[in-house]
Amino acid sequence: MSVRKSLVTLTAGVAVAAMALSTSPASANVSQGVVFGSGTITDDWGDEGPLWTESKYRVSNAVGLWQYVLWAEGATEQNGTAFDYADIDCDYGPNTTYATKKLQARWGLAADGAVGGDTFSIADNHLRGNTGRVSYTGKVRTVFFIRADSGNYRFENPEAGVGSNLWETATYGTNATCFVPGG
Fold first, then answer.
1. Which has the closest alpha carbon to 78: 105, 96, 58, 53?
2. How far is CA 61 from the centre of its chain?
3. Backbone angles phi, psi at 168, to 5 degrees
4. Which of 65, 123, 120, 76 is nearest to 98 (CA)?
5. What's the predicted TM-score (pTM) here?
């Protein structure tokens, strides 16, 4: 009886461990369709992503949010200049990839240019605030986001004109609102 009880306990333990390993937090919020947070601000983004050049979310508002982080951090572009406000175009192109690699290296991460849970986890350690206005303090500047009551993150749209909606939801969909084709 004792051996059988041990076997049942062992089997249950293996099943729990297998379920834990099969969970994929790095893409948990992609299925929600938005960059999302709840509870403590400094652990909002650790389950976000992945974003990279080959991602189906290459052109998305989630990329725009990440580009704000690059701007705040003063990340470097391919030509050696700082990643600037004009580079926030919601397109995960070569400058975003290069700037991400440089930032990952500075943070002590594998510099692969893809933004997943590890990269987002370090970024969310820079967040302060609560539901409503959230600040991100980077190496060069502080930027602001909105975490709506629903948990959805919003960022300032650099392409919004006067009278337009200035804050955009950071969606993973392909309907990026700050992308200017050929711009």
1. 96
2. 10
3. -115, 140
4. 76
5. 0.80
> Where does residue 183 rank: exposed (0-12), middle (13-18), buried (19+ CB within 10 A)?
exposed
What is the rounded CA–CA span in Å between residue 135 and residue 150?
18
Contact 57, 79 (CB under 8 A): no
Q: Are 120 and 46 in contact (CB under 8 A)?
A: yes
Residue 28 and residue 23: Cα distance in Å, rounded? Answer: 9
C-alpha 152/C-alpha 162 separation (Å) is 24
Residue from 85, 65, 72 nearest 126 by CA: 72
Record the tokens describing residue 125, joined without a space: 């350690």
Q: What is the tens place of the pLDDT at every residue in 18-30? A: 333 333 333 446 7
